[in-house]
Amino acid sequence: MALLLRLVINAVAIWLASVWVTKIHLIYPPDAGTWGKVLVVVCVALVFGLVNALIKPIIKLLSLPLVVLTLGLFLLVINALMLWLTAKITETSQYGLRIDGFAAAFIGAIIVTVVNWVLGILVPEGGRD
Fold first, then answer.
1. In angstroms, rounded to a whole number, what is the distance separating the alpha carbons of residues 67 and 71?
2. Mapping DSSP to helix (H, G, I), strand (E, B) and coil, where does residue 11 land?
3. d(CA 43, CA 7)
4. 3-state SS track over 24-63
């Protein structure tokens, strides 16, 4: 259940980033209704979750000296790279996430991080006492 909740939170965060940043676009089918758009956003969030689960730990480990040197600010660059990689992966299909430039990915990553943090606070995790 917690995994599904994280997927929904990531989907909301990516959708908000696409609404607030002009160079981040979610591409939907032309005749997509509301549920078609929701499906595209959830698929992008699923790819984003897989990228964060599989690739991000390796990148964080390899860039540990830069993270320490910048007092953690390099983690924002890593988050932007993960969002940009998600866009590159979904570009292989007709629909998905499109990001025009690293600056848009950086701003989008900040939005995704803040929305994940806020929604993570509002939604309690199961299993904690």
1. 6
2. helix
3. 9
4. EEEECCCCCCHHHHHHHHHHHHHHHHHHHHHCHHHHHHHC
Give the sign of the dihedral formed by CA 47, CA 21, CA 116, CA 65: positive
Q: Please state the pTM of the whole predicted model.
A: 0.89
Residues 6+ apart with CB under 8 A from 57: none
**Exposure class string for 107-116: b at 16+ Cβ within 10 A, else e:** bbbbbbbebb
Q: Is the dihedral of CA 28, 22, 122, 46 positive or negative?
A: positive
Q: Tokens at residue 115, please?
A: 């929305």
Instruction: State the CB neighbour count (10 A cutoff) for residue 61.
Output: 9
Whether 115 has a pLDDT exceeding 90, the answer reads yes
pLDDT by residue (tens digit) across 77-89? 999 999 999 999 9
Nearest to 115 by CA among 60, 48, 65: 48
